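W.,

You were right to be curious about this one. When I first looked at the sequence I had no strong expectations either way, so I just let the prediction run and decided to look at it fresh. Below is the sequence, 551 residues in total, followed by the output.
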Amino acid sequence: MEILGEAAGDTAGTVQSAVEGAGSAGGAIANVLLLMVGLLIGLVGLAAIQEKWLERGLRESGTRLAYMTAAGIGLHNFSEGLAIGQSFATGKTALAIGLVIGFALHNATEGFGIVGASTRTGERLSWASILLLGAIGGGLTFVGTLLGSLWTSEFVSIFVLAMAGGAILYVVKELLFAVRKETAQKLIMAALAIGFGLGWGTEVVADAAQGGEAKEEHALREPDGDVLPATAAKTGAVAPISAEENARQRQAANQLLHEEALSPKVLPDGTKEYDLTASVFPWKLYPGATIDAWGYNHTVPGPLIRVRVGDKVAIVLKNDLPQPTTLHLHGLAVPNAMDGVPQMATGSGTVGTQPEIPPGGSYTYRFTVTDQMIGTHLYHTHVNDDFQMDMGLHGVIVIDPRQSSTTPPYDVDAVYEISSFKVGGSEEENVFALNGKAFPEAPTLTVHRGDRVLLRLVNASAEEFHVMHLHGYTFDIVAKDGNSLSQPERANTISLGPAQTADIAFTADNPGQWMFHCHILDHTVNPSEAGDGSAHRMASMGGLVTFINVE
């Protein structure tokens, strides 16, 4: 059952990925067919061999069952050999050695099962027969190891596991049929219990050899050494969102890209009041990965807030989270009481600018916009910061000068907010997104040839630096952390630490589809069994990748 469960589980995973758009439908169909064909060959193939042997006169039930058992176990051991070979092929020599030791102990107990059928009938096997049975039962381990060391293939693995599972099922059927004829049922049941214990124990040794680093596809080892169960190692544990919700989220990412700001409520004294509600909601990062995000107004990042110098502003934050929170306006010299730093006890007293906003509570941040605040900035939580920011509690605030030019200096003014998430139980940031979406969901920007383009870049990651690179262009870095540069810097990459912002500008004079991505390249893949890619596994593009289309 374990063998068939492994094959069926891998097949189900490819089917689920295809349904969610993250995998190939053709590959999923192929895996289903290989699963069924392998199972059929394992079951029917041994039955056909048995009939052929019977026709040739091999009717001694003990000898026949010994060869059937050896054949079934041999196919099973072939899959074990594939595991050893593929471990070696991926550079995990220590793991391969551990698997050899574990499977050798396991296979020793299987040998008793092979010869047990003949000893039950009192038949004495010749040394030639014993060697042949050993070659059938154990020799395929070496064949599997050799083949597995040459290449890795999910298709081959599913087919072989299904075939081995079918063969073992047939052997179990034959063994049960033989046991029914015996009179010493209590002794047989006791022997079965002992055999199960020995088989399980040696299987544990094999599993231990595959632990941690070994069973990467079955468990997740956190950076602090914690080993999480298989369910925690999978992204997308939250139920997929509806098509309508998916469309709404994609629209929110594009609205931020095109700087469609949150509309305020204007109070009688002219104050612009913005309502933010922090809550938990499902958020799709990329196909097959939906998380329970913590964000503002049911979007990650939160809505764009855009004000100008001289505005009186009130931001009302309502906390619908299961934890306290606050709001910090990063880089804005607001009154100290509005800085969003939670009160904390120290040896010399209490520090901080406000009490934490408890679940169900609210707090209003009031300030008047000054010249110091002009530019592109970040707003974010300041409680349990590392966790809450990586759950999505951040957004962009843009401050315009008091008087705007009648002729805007740029034809296109766009925002890309860079964020990070910790999914699958990871304690390190392992999913990276633009405007809340990882490639292939990240929004693309289309401009016209000749347009002057301004990109506002905001790094909302709690931990990671990012190095953003635009293909096909050299751009001007015209502002950093909201401050205009008197002398723009020419570059084609821009480095952003956590909470840093930069404005870059270029003239769209080179038509085509131009990739815009982080050049820390493990930020351009999404979590998968392929990891960051290897000589035997291809990692698809994901994370901080998008395109700027110049038409």
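Here's what jumped out at me. The first strand starts at residue 220 and ends at 221. And, maybe more interesting for your project: The longest helix spans residues 25-55.

Coffee later to discuss?

I.
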